[in-house]
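Researcher: Re-running this chain for the archive, since the previous output was lost when a drive failed. Same request as before.
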Amino acid sequence: MKILSENTELTTIQVAEILNVSRPLLIKLFEIGRIRYHKIGIDIGACGLKMSYTTKQY
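Model: Regenerated structure tokens:
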């Protein structure tokens, strides 16, 4: 398990690797609001992002 500081900036590929999911699934999780993120730059995949995971109670 990796421990990252709160202000760590990662690419979508790095986040997908850490979470052990595919990049397309990660993007879908962003789109449906399951993972909050902040884009840094123009393209979501080519530049850094800040994210935080949110859990939902069902």
